[in-house]
Amino acid sequence: MKKVDTIERKQKPEEISAPLVSKEKKNNIKEKPKQKKGKEKGKKKIGLKVKKYLSLFVIALFSLLFLVLLSFSGAVYAYENNTGGEIIYGTNLLGNDLGGLGRAEAGKVISDRLGDVTFTFVVDDEEVNVTPEELGLEFSGYSILGEALERRADEGFLGRYLSGAVTILGQIDGELGEYAGNLYRARYNHNLEIKYSLEEEKMAKFVEGLAAKYKVEEKNASLVMNGTDVQVIPAIYGRQLVTNAVRTQLESALASGETEKIHIYSEEVNPDILEEDTKASITAAQKLISLPVKYTYEEKSYVPDKATIGNWVVFAEEGGKLVPKIKESKVRAYIDSIAKKDINITPVNEKVKIVNGKERTVLREGKNGLAVNSSLLAENTAANLNAKKGIASKIPTYTVKYKTEVNNVLVANWAKYIEIDISSQRMCAYLKGGEKVNCWAVTTGANGWNTPTGTFLIRRKAGAGGQPGAYGGGVCMPNPPSTTPLCGINWVSTFTAQGHAIHEAWWRSSFGGSDYVWNGSHGCINATYNIAKFIYNWAPIGTPVVIHW
């Protein structure tokens, strides 16, 4: 029992539990597990090496990425700081990027750029260049600079960092650079709005002028009579600018900062009356010229044909239609042609000769004439035909009174004459044969306004019956160099065609003497009220006036 126990204790656990098998099988069972353990140990060693190298690779990769990121961040930081600008990149004004510029430098760029601004309006492919001044625009560079500076403050540190990062990446060739560039433009590009003030009157004047330049007036279809035929003149389609859009598009361009070309569009203007709208008018005109018209004078009749009546027709636009009407002036021209040829009698004017304003001699007797009252007949004709009624009428006439043609003749009548001595400043009245009536002191023309010398005849008279003084009646006479005439002049006896006369001079306190040289008249003979009155009543028209030194 004890030996068995010893054997049993020496047995291995697997032998105890294993089933009874042959030695060969048992050996086989024991050999297989020994081979499996060797392979597993080899694999474990290889796996540990892979993991070790992979870990080192990952660590190296992350270290490299960290170094790249650190270097890139440094580059971004350096880029942002080295630019030293207050304005963030992508801040554009009229195509100029103000990024990286300081306040003073950016202000100058803004000022210079605004000074170069011109606007190009494109109207139906035609370009019109306009200055801001012509549009009434005044730019505010200070306000634009303020907006540019606010962008940097709004972005903050992170925004500026990202801006720098995308900017650097955008400089790389290839897809990454293109992608970064597109990202940059989408995120950071900003066109500054152009700040300005607007003078409304100048803007309105520009728009009005532009509209007038490109306006084409529409024209309705029209009709013209050509004998008995009606000619159709086609309608013309007009064109006008959409003027309300001029200002809207200008403001939009200023807001976007893109002023290179501003397109202004026109619209077609349709006429109210087209060719197809004239058919009824043509029919109405044909009926109008078919109405009966007959004029008679004494035993003779005048019947205009359709072509003649057609020449009287015009077409008036009424309520969007062309209405045929008889024009009175055209009818009158037709009637005048009849009257001139067959009816009118020209009056014979009377001719009369009047000598010295008194002796009247009839040289030819006057005779009355006859004329057709074409205005009355034309008015009645037009009224009847336009009311779609014919007319049969006698031609009305009236008497034309003759006129008198007067030939005034001056003939010297030496029964009386007047002598004026400039050197002694005296005027004397004489009867025929030299009998002196009286002499008086007078004042003649001053230097530069000399009284003419020679023999003249009194030719007309004016200003009778007034009282002495500026407001005593009489007539007005020129008073050079003043443009205001001198009035209240009585008893004027004119002896030259230029107007020289003997007349009163209420403004003078004395007459005669040598002061006439510097204080004389403008060439007339100045006298007292009573002396001028005497000459006016004593000397008839035709009385000679002899003037000498």
SSE blueprint and pairings:
Blueprint (H helix, E strand, L loop, with lengths): L1 H9 L2 H5 L5 H61 L7 E3 L2 E2 L5 H13 L3 E5 L2 E5 L1 H4 L1 E3 L1 H30 L4 H14 L1 E2 L4 E3 L1 H14 L8 E5 L2 E5 L4 E4 L1 H14 L5 E3 L1 E4 L9 H10 L4 E5 L2 E3 L3 H5 L2 E6 L2 E6 L1 H16 L6 E6 L3 E6 L4 E4 L1 H13 L4 E4 L2 E4 L3 E6 L6 E6 L4 E6 L3 E7 L12 E4 L2 E3 L12 E3 L8 E4 L2 E3 L6 E4 L11 H4 L5 E3 L1 H10 L5 E5 L1
Parallel strand pairs: 1-6, 3-11, 13-20, 17-22, 23-33, 31-32
Antiparallel strand pairs: 1-2, 3-4, 5-7, 8-9, 10-12, 13-14, 15-16, 17-18, 19-21, 23-24, 24-25, 26-33, 27-30, 28-29, 30-31
Helix pairs in contact: 3-6, 4-6, 6-7, 12-13
Can you tag this structure with a few keywords?
single chain, 549 residues, alpha+beta, Ubiquitin-like (UB roll), L,D-transpeptidase catalytic domain-like
Summed up:
This protein is an alpha+beta fold.
Report on this structure.
There is one protein chain. By secondary structure, the chain is of the alpha+beta class. Among the domains are: 2-82, no CATH class; 278-408, Ubiquitin-like (UB roll), CATH 3.10.20.800; 416-548, Beta Barrel (L,D-transpeptidase catalytic domain-like). It is 40% helix and 26% strand. It contains 15 helices and 33 strands. The strands form twelve sheets. The protein has a five-stranded mixed beta sheet with strand order 25-24-23-33-26, with no helix packed on it. A four-stranded mixed beta sheet has the order 27-30-31-32, with helices on one face. Strand 24 (426-431) and strand 25 (435-441) form a beta hairpin. Helix 6 (141-170) runs antiparallel to helix 7 (175-188). The protein is elongated.
